[in-house]
Amino acid sequence: MPNFKQTAFISTAIASLALSGCTAMGGGAIPSTSAPITSNEAQQGAEAHPQFLQEFGGSYQGPQAAYVEQVGKNIAVQSGLGNARESFTVTLLNSSVNNAFAIPGGYVYATRQLVGLMNNEAELAGVLGHEVGHVAARHSQRRQSTAQQNSIIGAAGAILSGILLGDSGLGETVSRGFLQGSQLLTLKFSRSQELQADELGIQYLNKAGYDPRAMATVLQSLAAQNALDSSLQGNNASVPEWASTHPDPASRVQSAFAKAGQASGTTNRDTFLTRIDGMMYGDDPSQGVIEGRQYLHPEFRLAFTAPSGFYMVNGSRAVSINGESGSGQLSTAPYSGNLDSYVRTAFSALAGSGQALAPASMQRNTVNGIPAMYGTARVTSGGSQVDVTVFAYEFSRSQAFHFATIAPAGRAATFTPMYNSMRRISASEAAAVVPRRIDVITVRPGDTVRTLANRMAYTTAQEQRLRVLNGLGSSDVVTAGQKVKLVVK
């Protein structure tokens, strides 16, 4: 949530590695050659590119970005979509979610968080090759032809769908209002299309001289991160696929290994680790940071705490709060100095065009010295009722922020502790919010996984985080001279 800006909702067909809720659909034969980028596709990509950057945290600058661009262009030319590296635009996104994308026109993207999870250059090439494969096979066009062009899901919106969707009326529209705050927008692809993109990515790896098994190993790392995220969020079961930033890569690992066969090639591990050394990892303080259940935004000087049992996902326009008993988000909107009008406008925005949604009543409040106002509306959806609440705070005469939450009828109070936790933070507290970065070190004699884990800039699950970050199994050890990644402040 870098500037809490209101940005355009992206309806461009986005090809993503971290796809949610895939449905059965024929992917078609693997093309031996790809049709070149058309002028229409080039125009479509050029128009979507600025919006896409804005939606996903902007581009990450520096030598790591130049390296990702170099590798991405080298693998993209293997697709036949363009005859030259200049046919492609490859961008490292300043986002703390694990994701990669490509859109028609030769535009390819990977988040710095996903790159940080990788362990060699072949994995980076494989992920970007997978995305290019979606474009080469024209998967997004096939999805559009089945009238699912706008089937976009985000973490908050998807969780809300468990309560609201299935109703073509107001409930669905409200959930889509929540959805727009998520950074995890993605176009759904079928399982067969995912496997086809994996296979194309493996073909590109082979043609470029990389180890084709890298596609499987990066999917293994994503599966391990998925399990770790679930554990850190306190879930006994894994996070549902539609709520995950990288759903169900585990189901594709064995398929990718089988397709790679016994072929071998370069991985460029040491080069990769050297080139990503120092890259930011986790939340960018300019976008706000999540520390356990606490969210802090040093620029806007605010902080709040999510309810017990809930977890948060930081997005470009909102931070989402998700749990079994409800979901919500914190965002902002233009403010004229009238909190009553602000709250009512927020309700209308949730309902969307052609729908009516208004609070049953409005109440003023003061939270930790901050003027506040809130209202709740009860909505019938799918034969059940839910409570939608907007709780707004005036931070200045020109700046307000608001929670928009949804919970089963009668359980809106689940979020009361969160509403009451909103506070201003001091200049010193804001200054103490600093980014985490990847530190590539060489293992010394006497170092162990445990001693290295103690250097990780986290207070919980240090060893598990270290193992997942470095692709280490539960019984793997480190040896002197080996390069490993740490996350430090």
Automatic annotation (TrEMBL):
<dbReference type="GO" id="GO:0004222">
    <property type="term" value="F:metalloendopeptidase activity"/>
</dbReference>
<keyword id="KW-0479">Metal-binding</keyword>
<keyword id="KW-0862">Zinc</keyword>
<dbReference type="InterPro" id="IPR018392">
    <property type="entry name" value="LysM"/>
</dbReference>
<feature type="domain" description="LysM">
    <location>
        <begin position="439"/>
        <end position="486"/>
    </location>
</feature>
<dbReference type="GO" id="GO:0016020">
    <property type="term" value="C:membrane"/>
</dbReference>
<dbReference type="GO" id="GO:0046872">
    <property type="term" value="F:metal ion binding"/>
</dbReference>
<protein>
    <submittedName>
        <fullName>M48 family metalloprotease</fullName>
    </submittedName>
</protein>
<dbReference type="InterPro" id="IPR001915">
    <property type="entry name" value="Peptidase_M48"/>
</dbReference>
<keyword id="KW-0732">Signal</keyword>
<keyword id="KW-0378">Hydrolase</keyword>
<dbReference type="Pfam" id="PF01476">
    <property type="entry name" value="LysM"/>
</dbReference>
<feature type="signal peptide">
    <location>
        <begin position="1"/>
        <end position="26"/>
    </location>
</feature>
<keyword id="KW-0482">Metalloprotease</keyword>
<keyword id="KW-0645">Protease</keyword>
<dbReference type="Pfam" id="PF01435">
    <property type="entry name" value="Peptidase_M48"/>
</dbReference>
<dbReference type="InterPro" id="IPR036779">
    <property type="entry name" value="LysM_dom_sf"/>
</dbReference>
<dbReference type="InterPro" id="IPR051156">
    <property type="entry name" value="Mito/Outer_Membr_Metalloprot"/>
</dbReference>
<dbReference type="GO" id="GO:0051603">
    <property type="term" value="P:proteolysis involved in protein catabolic process"/>
</dbReference>
